[in-house]
Amino acid sequence: MKNASPESGIYSLKTQVIREARRHVNVTINMLTAPAQRLAAPRFAPLFAALLAMGAYCLGMTMLGSYPFGTRSRAVNDLGNQFVPFHAHLWDLLHGNTTGDLLLNWNSGYGVPFLADFLTYLMNPFSWLVGLFPRDLAELPVFLVTLGCIGLGSALMTVFLGRVHPGAPWPRALLAVGYGTCAWVVSDGTADPMWMWGLVSLPLTGIAADWCLRRRHWVAGTLLVGVSWAGNFYTAAMAGLAMALVLAVRLLLAAEVPVRDRLRSLVRAATMALTGVLLAAPAITVTLKASKASRPAPEAVYRGRPPTLDFVAELLPGGRGSVPAPHLFIGMLGLLLVAAFPFVRAVPVRTRVAWYGLAACVAVSFVWKPTLLLWHGLAVPNGSPYRASFVLSALLVIIAWLALAHRPRPRELAAGAVLVALIAALCGGRSVVGPATWILVAGCGPVVLAALLALARHRARSTVGTLAAAALTCAVFFGSAYAAFSVTAVRDQLAWWEPKITLDDRTIAVHREIKAREDWPRSRTDPGPHEFANNDPLLLGGEGGSYYSSYVPEKTARTLREMGGGWYIHGRHLRSVEDPVSRAVLAVSSFRTGPQAGPVDVGRAAAAPLLTVRPGLSAEDLDQPRRGAAGRGMDVRADPRVGGGSVFARQERLLGARVYEVPTLRLAGGGSGGGGPAAGSHAAAAPESGAVRPVPRLVDGEWRLPATRRGGAALFTVRCTPGSDVFWYAPWYHGQVRAAGLTSPGFGIRETTANPVKGLGVAPPDGRLTVAFSNPRAQRVPEHPLGCLSRAKLAAAVADLRKQGPVRLSSSGHGLSAELPAHRTGTAVLAVPAVPGWGCRVDGGAARAPHSFGGLIAVPLGAGATRLDCSYRPPGLLPGLAASGAALGVLAAVAGTCGVRRRRGGAHRPPFPPES
């Protein structure tokens, strides 16, 4: 046996040391990455994607200092104005802490339908978590709605990508994180949690469509479609259309599958979709009826497609531009793979062309008005016209997965990197490309490229492969977090995104004070008119008039405006009434006063009961609906006295007594509204400025006020009873009204913003008032904009109405029951807007639709009655339930048939090819 040389011994020792060092390095790396590797296994990949996406979003919000990780409020735009108040109301419903139920909301609009709001804003299953938290923390479950949808959407996308093409679960999970934190989510979806269900419904619908391809799980797929549409039908329709296009592409590419089988898959998908939609039919029929009966949305004007480079620049992560365009980015990993996809030779050319063509067609459909309308329910959205952007982001993620699943070569990845660099160079000057974009492209991009190149050359379980996988995971996680942070920071700088005051110490104190003062149903406690959020009554409690929803009934809005209430957004945001007569008519006996920052102060006033019996009213006295802007269901019969067609006369009709003095406006310096010399003149001296300018003219029952210069005003004189309260009403007036040393601003814009009846102080001892109108542009105001109220007459009128109240009045969730004095005749008037869906029974008789009196519910009692019962049922509910019942019957029949066939050993169907 030969002796070993010293050199060979040293070499062996070096080799042993190196091997031992490698073993320790591998053990250390495995210890660090073992949890992620276990989570990324096929069984746990969806959970891995969910945790990674939710963690990235939470990290981004922590960097921003946003609630619940900091003091920065999330209650921006509709999240503060609608979703937090609606979730607070849902908490009240779940805990029996409110007067209404799912069918009717007694808190808002002085009694409005609620089921359509629930089905639209609160059907996301994550919304129901609000019941597990204290009411004062309702903002936290609203945040969890967003977070839960990000996690569930990412998990389901991981599953769906595996159905589109088989491949390693860990890369699918990383790409799904890009989908869960895409630009649409962090820019649009998080501010409107109801839309976030679209992030879930898209992969749900895609999985159902994949089962159609493989001709299995028809019942389960139908249930998935039904859940998608029930959670939010608006985004589910977008997701369904997108997945229909994906299904068409997959069928087109399946050339080896006989045409007959492809047609059968198509029919199967159509029947599955139809039955699934019918399962959620009430969400469609109820909201459709409510939408048709609601105030029309402000007409949105589509201003045309964005510049091409602004559109393309949206692919780059981390920015939010000033040019309206679809928000698209899916992170650097997804962008690099989408750019590399055309160069991946392992993917057949026809497949590359088909998927790229689909993405291009969808992109073009977003900026061509006819197809834009198709994506958005045949109406241009008010606000962002690209609410369907998430479907294009999903298509980009699918394309990225197809590229990665075919293991792109280094040259192909390099070609994709060059294309990304070219896009960044061309779009560098666009508003969406900011510092955050360059940080992600120049910092995160090379890391992603290097990791993909390393994985292309080494096995995933090797040392280099493990390090590359860890680097890629970190790049996706921190890149997604930074993109969420940067986009939200830019968005929150916009004035429109100023947070609303929702649940803080102040509003919590107001809520407790309002609850302590409630006297429902004997009278209402109104938390208005000052606003914390646009839905103060849902947030603060009480039974107020403020109400902001897409489903504000047209009749409610018109009734309250004709009574002198105000509105915003074309009547889709109502304000509480502010004058004493309207409050008395609507049974408002207590109301919050004072500014937001001041002490909690609840005022009191004498008010009529919620239900009164008017002996003098007959069927002829009730409203006769007429066409035209003046009517809309209101009685517009002429009143012979001065101001007989004014808001003050309409209030008196509802009150049943004369309480106002409506003076005639006379131009200061001579002339009257009847067309005296000044009224016919075109120029006069302006006392404040000394300039000569046109003077007001009375034309067609309206005063036409010219624009006034700075410091100038149109001056009128009026006479009222000394000591009476002076009010003015000009719903569309924008300017200032001054009298008796007081200034009252008006912010009216015709049909968009309506002023309520506002106070101008007290008439002086001589009863003579000079009223000045200062307006920056020409205006029109009613012929009789002023009314002088006698408080004594109002008190007497309210006392008379209280004598005409019921013996006993009780309220259920969606109804009212009254015990009347024996054999009471006349007409019962409920201080509730008369909207379709109400039915009333007199002494247990047949339910009949009530009449209307000044827009309020009116029920003729006939020869005499002792009991009145009224209840509300949403229009469209019964047809929707019938359709859902039919769909459930079909589902049960199919499930039974399939069960029998399985027991008999039905024929095996070959699965759809895994690759398409």
Automatic annotation (TrEMBL):
Region annotation (Disordered) ranges: 670-689
Biased composition (Low complexity): 679-689
Pfam family, one: YfhO
InterPro entries listed in its UniProt record: Uncharacterised_YfhO (IPR018580)
Keywords annotated in UniProt: Membrane, Transmembrane, Transmembrane helix
Membrane-spanning ranges: 47-69, 110-130, 142-164, 233-253, 265-288, 325-344, 353-376, 388-406, 413-432, 438-456, 463-485, 877-900
Keyword Cytoplasm among UniProt keywords: no
Ranges in coiled-coil conformation: none
Protein name per Swiss-Prot or TrEMBL: YfhO family protein
Lineage, opening ranks: Bacteria, Bacillati, Actinomycetota, Actinomycetes, Kitasatosporales
